[in-house]
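A brief tutorial aside. Many learners find it easier to grasp structure tokens once they have seen a single protein encoded end to end. The record that follows does exactly this for Hydroxymethylglutaryl-CoA lyase. Read the sequence first, then the structure, and try to relate runs of similar tokens to stretches of the chain.
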Amino acid sequence: MLPAKVNIVEVGARDGLQNENAVTLADKVRLIDQLSLSGLKHIEAGSFVSPKWVPQMADSEQVFQQIKQQQGVIYSALTPNLAGLERAIESGVKQIAIFGSASESFSQKNINCSIAQSLTRFEPVIELAQQHNIPVRGYLSCTMVCPYEGEISATQTTFIANTLFDMGCYEISLGDTVGKGTPNRVEALLSQLLQQLPNDAIAVHFHDTYGQALANIYQALLMGINTIDSAVAGLGGCPYAKGASGNVATEDVLYLCENLGIETGVDLDAINRAGWQICQSLDKQPASKVALALGDPNSL
Ligand code: HMG
Ligand code: MG
């Protein structure tokens, strides 16, 4: 049965812009401020990773300083280690996310350590966050397919997702990092995982490289998942996942949910406007089919 309501986690300002070189601090702040007025309740606004690894996110301190935070909206950030968490705390961040991988090769490429080392590294991060009453979200990449290893078993992903949950993550966001998943794989993964974790502890984070994200989300919705990560204008990609393109577009998810009778609380027109505007700064078209169908409201 489909859920009556979904939570959208807007990741465009992080997952999207971590992949863009031509974006200014002012563009980021304007995008987040626009998203803040759309009804979204969770916006991932930055990433306190090594600036040597991802220079595009090096200004996350300034982003958090300059955005106008609206009441009732969570502004979260990625923190791969204690150094990242300390920077986030200094910036007054109220919610963080750690990010691991279900595939060994991707773990090495993305965070320069094995899965086991990453879990050890996350322990003090979760502990310090808990001391500061900062909820921790756990991302898991390559939950179905890895760009280096191919198919990842549902058993492997379930085991690591469960471990992150037991370590104190309130929610595990399942990444289809390279967008190669299909509904049958989503079904196989969620069937196993839902035997161990409640549906409200699971989110889906699907990239749309192969055009499967909406079909995969529909499958997840049918199985009771009610938190969806998406990126305005379909921005996104991971610099350490060869061939990964953008996240599923928020506009497309909103259109799907609205027409399925699922409440999102988010204003599609406001997202569409913000999407066209950031794309104008990036000198590209939105990757969202719905945005293209609706057209650019800023040019009317
Ligand atoms: P490392 O090189 O092994 O770390 O990287 P290190 O501890 O040896 O540090 C190297 C240098 O970075 C040192 O500086 C540190 O001080 C500095 P140096 O002494 O050389 O001058 N450093 C930092 N500086 C600022 N903030 C920090 C920080 N940490 C170290 N937090 C590390 C390990 C994890 C740091 C690195 O691999 C890294 O930052 N990786 C992040 C990669 C990334 O951001 N990928 C994209 C996000 S994940 C994603 O997109 C997937 C997701 O969307 C889900 C999905 O789609 O699947 C979430
Ligand atoms: Mg991602």
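Self-check: The chain has one domain: 7-299. If you spotted this yourself, you are ready for the next section.
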